[in-house]
Write a structure and sequence with these properties.
Strand content: 15-25%
Order of helices and strands: HHEHEEHEEHEEHEHEHEHHHHHHHH
Helix content: 40-55%
Oligomer: single chain
């Protein structure tokens, strides 16, 4: 079967497949299988964990961007009086899907004895659908009810729970920027009617964000113009480069352009650091399996010293002997890597089926709905991660073969055959 291969490959493959003739050979073969299984387990675990982490990152990012803009344009002095002209320029870019003005400010929501600090965002219901998915996230009420001069307000699901508020209830919006009176500085108050409750699926937004009409927002915050312009792109991944292009298009205006990755820089940096650390930690599993591969090859070299001596006397060079054992070890590592990649990819692509089956089988939930906002394990398999993991595993397996192979090449034929 292997007769047409170079003899180094022939012998290396024969050593890899042997191991059922004697008790010692069986033991070496068992250790070799354990090494391959360890590599396969490490590779599969790393692929599955990275896919789940990518899934969580994508899920949270998508939920954040259902409320946040891809790009945000603000005037350098805090307002954007010529927002229509700015929107006209921005909409000319072929990668821009839509724009919408907004007003934003800090406030306090009060209902009875309950009080919560919130971010109040004034929006135009007719244009907001161009840049966000808030209108589709309403659980009660409608987004279109935020009409000018209606003084209606839409709040997040968690915020409604904290305030014990429902659609139709009255809440008082307290603005920190107060009015000067003979009695001193007093905050501005305005009563609003809860016209809708939304659920973005992200606790921070569901508990600290409220929407009102942009006209009402300009009145209560005493703003002469919108705070800025929100922009939606065809591909949110292009936001960093697009923000630079849009800033170049608006050189005549003194504006500040920020993309979503900069607005949430700390969160994304923390996720990337966590992924890197998890990659390093799980790579240690593969490294341990590679150490097992070293021990397997060392025992094989010790067992095959007579064979090595005979090959040397038949004309094999030390380089050929070294190549034989490198081939044996590398093939074991490659085989374990391929098994691990196959298993890891299979589980990652079907985790939405496997996890519910395990939960039903053992009667528990990995992510209880009453604790976590995401109640199912998301998975986002990225083939670049698979290539990086598989390549790292093969490199570690190859490095594990160097010392045993070098040791085999240094075997003295006379010493090895002395007691044979």
């Amino acid at each position: 079967m292997f007769s047409k291969l170079p003899f180094e490959w022939y012998v290396g493959l024969r050593y890899l497949r042997s191991g059922k003739r004697s008790g010692r050979n069986r033991f070496i073969s068992f250790i070799s299988m354990i090494s391959m299984a360890g590599i396969a387990l490490g590779v599969a675990a790393l692929i599955i964990v990275m896919s789940v982490m990518n899934g969580f990152q994508k899920e949270v990012r998508d939920r954040m961007l259902s409320v946040l803009p891809h790009v945000e344009i603000q005037d350098a002095y805090g307002a954007l009086p010529n927002w229509q002209a700015t929107a006209e320029v921005v909409n000319k870019h072929p990668d821009v899907v839509g724009t919408a003005p907004y007003v934003v400010g800090q406030a306090m929501l009060v209902r009875g004895d309950f009080m919560r600090g919130v971010v109040v965002r004034g929006v135009d219901p007719a244009l907001e659908g161009n840049v966000s998915e808030v209108s589709r996230q309403f659980k009660r009420g409608t987004f279109t009810s935020l009409e000018p001069d209606s003084f209606n307000i839409a709040i997040g699901k968690e915020l409604a729970r904290m305030l014990r508020a429902n659609v139709g209830d009255k809440v008082t919006v307290v603005i920190p920027q107060g009015q000067v009176t003979p009695a001193g500085m007093i905050p501005r108050l305005k009563q609003f009617t809860v016209a809708g409750i939304f659920e973005a699926g992200h606790f921070e937004f569901d508990s600290t964000l409220a929407f009102i009409s942009i006209g009402d927002a300009m009145k209560i915050f005493q703003a002469e113009a919108p705070t800025g312009l929100r922009v939606k792109l065809k591909d949110m991944q292009d936001a960093p480069s697009m923000s630079v292009e849009l800033a170049a298009m608006l050189t005549k205006d003194e504006v500040v352009v920020r993309d979503w990755s900069k607005q949430n820089k700390n969160w994304f940096a923390a996720v990337q650091t966590e992924k890197k650390m998890m990659f390093i930690i799980l790579m240690l599993i593969i490294a341990v399996a590679a150490f097992n591969l070293v021990s397997t090859l060392v025992m094989t070299v010790t067992e095959k010293q007579a064979d090595i001596a005979i090959l040397r006397t038949l004309g094999a060079t030390p380089r050929s002997i070294m190549k034989i054992f490198m081939i044996q070890g590398a093939l074991a590592g490659i085989l374990g890597t391929l098994i691990g990649v196959g298993f890891g990819v299979l589980v990652s692509l079907n985790i939405d089926v496997i996890v519910p089956f395990i939960e039903r089988l053992f009667g528990f939930q990995f992510l209880p709905k009453n604790i976590y906002l995401i109640s199912s394990l998301p998975s986002d398999l990225q083939w670049m991660d698979v290539l990086r993991i598989g390549g790292s595993s093969i490199i570690l397996s190859f490095l594990a073969t160097l010392y045993p192979s070098w040791s085999a090449a240094k075997v003295n034929p006379a010493e090895a055959l002395r007691y044979e």
